[in-house]
Amino acid sequence: MVARSKGCARCVQRRVKCDENVPGCRRCDTYGFPCPGYDRAFKFVAGKPFRSRRRKSSNRNVEGTAAEGDASVQALTWPPSVNCAHLNVVQSLDTLVLELSKPFPETSAHVISRWFRFLPAVYGRNRTLDLTIQSFAAHHLGRMSDNMSAVQHAQSAYGQALYRLRTSLNNSECLSSEVFCAVLLLCLYELFANTHEADAWMKHAQALSQLVQIRGSHCYRNAFDQALLKASRGMMVMHSLFSGQSCFLASSEWHSVMGQQFNTGFSAKVDGLVEQIFAYFTFAPSLIHELYDLKEADHTSPSTTARVSNLLARTLDMQGKLLIWYDQFARVVPVPHEVLSPSGDSLYPVVLWYSDENAATLFCSYYSYMLVLCEILRVCGYPGEHAAMLVYFRDQICKSVEFNARGLLGPYRMAFALRVAYEVPDPTTKLWIEGCLQRLSKVYAAAHPQNFG
Fold first, then answer.
1. CATH topology assigned to domain 1-38
2. Hey, which of 2, 12, 244, 386 would disulfide with 378, CB 3.0 to 4.6 Å?
3. What pTM, to 2 d.p., does this model score?
4. Of 45, 9, 49, 47, which is closest to residue 174 (Cα–Cα)?
C-alpha cells in the first residue's frame, strides 16, 4: 500500500486538481462539502497472483457436477442464478467454518477461527469482500476435495479481488469493515496458497498494518471489527518483526483498544491473561531488532555497552513478566500433560497434550517468547543456563505439534513457534522440524521449509 496522490480523497475520486489546503481544501469548501482530508488516498500493491497449469481434463469441475457424496465440491457448483449462487457460497462458507474448527469443538472460543463465523452474515454486502471470500473458500474446499478446478477458480477470484480492492481503497468504502476483512483474507490466502513467493504475505500484512492505523483506534468498537483486529494482529506483529519496522500496536492506546471484549467465550480472568501476553508480544520486535543491530555494532564502544545494558534490562524485565503470567495462567487453564506419541514419533516418543487448541496456542506462544528472551540473554553474555533453557523451550514446542498442528488452522497456529524453534542449533531437531514443515506446507504454504532458510 503506497501513496497515490497528495490531494484529498474527494478530489482524487473526482479526478480534479486539489490545492491541498490544510485542514481542508478550498475546492471541497466551494462545493459545500466537508473535506475528507489527505490520509485516505492509497493503493494496494501485491505480487501477481500465481497460476498453475490448466488440466486438459478433470473428473470434477466447478461448473459441472461434483462427484456423488462430495458435499464440499457440490457446494462449489455455482449455477447461473445469482440468488442460487449467493446461497451456494454461503453454504460453502458453512462447510468451511466446520472444517476450520476441526478437530476441536465448533463452539471453540479461539479468536483465529471464531471470526470466520462472521463471513456468511457479511457475504453480499460488498463486491470486493465477496470476491475475496469466494477465493478463500474455493481454495480451501478445493484442496480438501482434491478439486483442482476449484483451486484454479480461487486463483482467478483472487486476481479479481485484488483488482477490485484497488478501486475500494480509493473511494468512500476504503475504511469500511468489509474492506478491512477483505485485506485480512487476502493476506491469509497468500499464507495458505502461495508456494512461489515466500514473502508475498508480507505485502498484504504491511497493507493490513497501514489500513488499521489509517482507520484509527476508534474503529474497533463492535464485535466484528474487534474480531478482525484480533485475528490480524499476529500478522502485523510478524510483519514488524521480519520487516525491521517498529510495531505500532506496542502503544498503550492500542493495548487499550485490543483489551475490549465482545463475547469471546473465555472467562473474564482468562480474557485478561490472553490480552496480557499479546500486549507483551508487541514488544518482541523491538527486542529482536535491537539484538540484531548490536551484532553489527562496535562492542568496544561505550555507546554499544550502554545499549547492551539497556537491552538486558528490558529482556530481564519481560522474562520476569512472562514467568508471572505463566504462573497465573497455569492456575486457571489446565497445563499440558505427557502422553505417548499417537504417531509413534521416534525423536519425540512422548508429546504434550492440551485441554484444547486455545490453551495449546497460548502455551506455545509462551514457549516461543521465552526462547527468544533466552537467546538474547545468551548472546549478550548474561550469566545463566541459557543454552539448556533454549533446548527445553524448543522441545516443548516440538512436543506440541501433534496436538496443536491438527486441522486446517493447525499449521497457522504453530508456524511462528516452529520458526523460533528452528533457530536453536541442533541438526537432528532441524531435520525433524523440516519434516513437520514439509507436511504442514501441504495445507499452509508459508510453512514450506524453503521459507525457513
1. CD2-Gal4 (4.10.240)
2. 386
3. 0.78
4. 9
